[in-house]
Amino acid sequence: MPPVELTWGAATAVGQREDNQDRYLAAPPVFVVADGMGGHVGGAAAAETVVEALRSLTGSGTTTVEAIRLALQRADGEIRGFQGPDKAGAGTTVAGVALVDEGDGPQWAVFHVGDSRVYRWHAGRLELVTRDHSVVQELIDAGYISDESAATHPQRHIITRALGVGPRPEADVVLLPVVPGERFLACSDGLTGELTDAQIAPLVGGGEVARAASTLATEAETVGARDNVTVVVLEAASGVARGAEG
């Protein structure tokens, strides 16, 4: 198939936090959000580390799943090697979409570690592609709580997998075909902690991708975002590849 033409937009907001520990990368063929944790210095440094590791994969038409996994492993090792009390316990989630070629032409690789998410939007419908690595998700999967009660559960912020802390994490990766007009949203939990999927869906599909990204971040702040909010919206489209950040 011919080269995939892309459009994208990205936006980030501090919310009610004192600083922003989220980082993002929107550079073909990799589009990713990282949500740092472990103190304002350590969290930001951890998120920046994973973004920079993935930045090494940009600049060409496609990458590979193996290259993504190796970059995440390298970032995990670097974060675990942080020195100094201000970086103790630092870690980060990561969620993203990358255009990969595994031998059969371009595909989307959706990957994540933690509770940052990737959604797919097509024909007016929003689908959650990733599955949170969190205590609450495990409780849902086991049938102990419902999706509705998860939003207010006291353990909703506890994650079971992250880069830099705990057992060495393995990223979940899903391969999907490239469908013209389809959009992807990568976001930190600052967005999903404030807006429901039903509220997110029309904003992802509304207008140009750069406007969609900006509107999502603004809407989360409008309702009183308690955490940093970062979003990247991506679409496979015709025309010259272009992007915007806000």
Alpha-beta classification: alpha+beta
Q: How would you spell out the order of helices and strands?
A: EEEHHEEEEHHEEHHHEE
Biggest sheet: strands side by side, in what order? Answer: 7-6-9-10-1-11
Percentage of residues in strands: 25-35%
- Note the main sheet: 6 strands, mixed
Report helical residue fraction: 25-40%
Evaluate the radius of gyration: 17 Å
Q: Low-confidence stretches at least 5 residues in length (pLDDT < 50)?
A: none
Count of individual helical segments: 7
The rounded distance between the terminal residues' Cα atoms is: 32 Å
CATH architectural category: 4-Layer Sandwich
Average pLDDT reading:
89
* Strand element count: 11
Give the CATH class: Alpha Beta
What is the domain total for the residues?
A: 1
- Return the CATH topology: Phosphatase 2c, domain 1
Judging from the principal axes of the Cα atoms, what is the shape? globular
What does this structure look like?
It is a single chain. With 246 residues, this protein is α+β, with helices and mostly antiparallel strands. The chain has one domain (6-245): Phosphatase 2c, domain 1 (4-Layer Sandwich). It is 28% helix and 30% strand. The strands form two sheets. A six-stranded mixed β-sheet has the order 7-6-9-10-1-11. α1 runs antiparallel to α2 and α6 packs antiparallel against α7. The longest helix is centred in the N-terminal third of the chain and has 16 residues, at 40-55. The model has no long low-confidence stretch (mean pLDDT 89).
